[in-house]
Amino acid sequence: MILLRRLQGDVLRRQRQRQGRTLREVSSSARVSLGYLSEVERGQKEASSELLAAICDALDVRMSELLREVSDELALAELAQSAASDAVPPPMRPMLNPIRVTSVTGRPEERVTIKAPAEAVDVFAA
């Protein structure tokens, strides 16, 4: 799943690093806590439009430029995700083959073998 907040944080971080500025400098200029700005850059927090405007002002970047870059990255991520899903065949349904076996202790138990395309897994039910 593509998270917009993660893409937005990546773009904000790159903008800040291009300018050679620290988180502390930008957080002070934007009047945002250092920890919160760090979480926004790491995509852990969703920035409100007011917060985003303050960060853009601190970075001297137009919000439209920031959002355009985020939009471009989103388009690329969607294309990559689409290409990856087209390359993977749909999952095959495993086949269940229940058989009755007698355990070492002499107690009957049902054994179910699940055969997946690449592997087989044995499941025991007492």
Automatic annotation (TrEMBL):
Q: Name the keywords, alphabetized.
A: DNA-binding
User: Mind telling me which Pfam families this protein's record contains?
Assistant: HTH_3 (PF01381)
InterPro entries attached here?
Cro/C1-type_HTH (IPR001387), Lambda_DNA-bd_dom_sf (IPR010982), TransReg_Diox_bact_type (IPR050807)
Listed under GO cellular component are: cytosol
Q: Which domain of life is it from?
A: Bacteria
Q: Does the keyword Protease apply?
A: no
Which residue intervals define the domain HTH cro/C1-type in the entry? 12-66
Entry annotated with the keyword DNA-binding: yes
**Protein name as catalogued:** Helix-turn-helix transcriptional regulator
